[in-house]
Design a protein that fits this description.
single chain; 418 residues; alpha+beta; Multidrug efflux transporter AcrB transmembrane fold; Gyrase A, domain 2
């Protein structure tokens, strides 16, 4: 039994340490990073009432949906788009190279109109089926090829038939993009917008037209740019804080609790891997408040082990063996650990429900961290400690920290309650 316990313990310890060394850095760097960690642009849009359209819940939902389509088609990585209040939309664009171009694109109303020389609207963007940027093979110009829906194709055919020899202007948000002369009726349901300076400009216009016009007027009321250097500085500081926090906890547990502290340190490695793995699996975006939530949850994970080991010391001082003291320590500490963690999870849930943006990120990392800390402190640590005791390699009380001072007197507290 001693040999089997020792082999299982060594396998368990070796596997956790090896996985931690191999995967901790790739896993940490694979998690999406927020604006404050890698730099980018923060934009706040506000919808306004006009004579044509009023702001309501349906209009705001459509604004968010259109913004998502525009930003995704622009190829911007890991955007964050969310409602704030009744009329505002917050957009965060981490790591973009040309913030002015992105802001200009996402802020356009994108109302496409075809008008005759008298100013009558013949077609609108709602009649479009598709819009794609391309190079005109004849003159090498960058253009946007339009394809109309069945109804739009019929409207366009009628419009060109009635305006042969006259101009039909194509306008975007009231500004003329091109004003060509109709030389012959166009019956194929396709048209071409020319005059784009380069292919990138044509692609941006195509994105606007494909995503559709915003249902209400929106104004950009705030823009804030976080430079890459500032984001990298925040990232470096958060990594430093994380490393220092982990190292301090590992040393503390080892000095005060010796072998149980060593086991708790190994469990903490497993806990950190599990937490980062879950965040990666959820495709979470890690921000500075999220890093703070992780560090706080690490402290709570250690707090659970401290409660267990202090109860173990107290039981040993009452004359019990190491095995019975350890079992009693886990049993007596469980209720306290469970109660304290449940209250923290409730607090994290409240922050998630009523908070916004980075506050919700903090709540998610804290809540997940607390749940996983219960799993590692109560299950994994207990499993490895039982293997250690059964192996009987170290039977001296000092090896288990039982001869060191007690941080709090459990027996005295129990007598005071009575």
């Amino acid at each position: 039994m001693r040999t089997n316990s020792l082999i299982k313990l060594l396998i368990c310890l070796g596997a956790i340490v090896a996985l931690f060394v191999i995967f901790i850095r790739p896993l940490a760097h694979s998690i999406r990073q927020g604006l404050d960690l890698q730099g980018g642009t923060h934009v706040v849009l506000q919808a306004e009432d006009t004579e044509i359209a009023q702001v309501n819940e349906d209009a705001m939902q459509r604004v968010v949906s259109i913004m998502e389509r525009r930003i995704n088609e622009l190829g911007l990585t890991e955007p964050i788009i969310q409602r704030e209040g009744e009329r505002r939309v917050i957009i965060e664009l981490p790591g973009i190279k040309d913030p002015d171009k992105a802001i200009e694109t996402i802020g356009k109303t994108a109302m496409l109109e075809f008008k005759d020389e008298e100013g009558n609207t013949l077609l609108t963007g709602t009649d479009l089926k598709d819009a794609q940027a391309a190079m005109n093979q004849q003159n090498g110009q960058c253009v946007v090829n339009l394809e109309f829906s069945d109804e739009g194709a019929q409207k366009f055919a009628d419009a060109t038939l009635e305006n042969v020899g006259r101009q039909i202007a194509i306008l975007l948000d009231g500004e003329i993009l091109t004003n060509p002369v109709v030389r012959e009726p166009i019956l194929g349901g396709k048209a071409e917008i020319s005059g784009q300076r380069d292919l990138e400009e044509a692609q941006h216009l195509a994105v606007l037209l494909r995503s559709g016009a915003l249902p209400v007027k929106v104004n950009i009321i705030e823009t804030r740019t976080v430079g890459p250097s500032l984001g990298q500085d925040s990232k470096d500081k958060s990594e430093f804080a994380f490393v220092v926090g982990i190292a301090a906890v590992l040393v503390f547990m080892l000095l005060f609790y010796r072998l149980p502290g060593f086991i708790a340190d190994i469990s903490l490695m497993a806990y950190t891997l599990m937490l980062l793995g879950v965040l990666k699996g959820l495709d979470a975006t890690l921000t500075l408040p999220g890093v703070a939530g992780i560090i706080l949850s690490i402290g709570m994970a250690v707090d659970a082990n401290v409660l267990i080991f202090e109860h173990f010391k107290e039981e040993f001082r009452l004359g019990k063996s190491i095995r019975l003291s350890m079992d009693a320590g886990f049993k007596r500490a469980f209720t306290t650990i469970f109660d304290s963690n449940i209250t923290t999870i409730i607090a994290a849930g409240v922050l998630f429900l009523f908070g916004t943006g980075t506050i919700r990120g903090f709540a998610i990392t804290l809540g997940l961290g607390v749940l996983l800390s219960m799993l590692t402190a109560v299950s994994l640590t207990q499993f490895m400690l039982k293997l250690l005791v059964n192996a009987k390699l170290f039977e001296s009380p000092s090896a288990y920290g039982a001869d060191s001072f007690v941080l709090f007197d459990v027996a005295a507290d129990r007598k005071a309650v009575k």
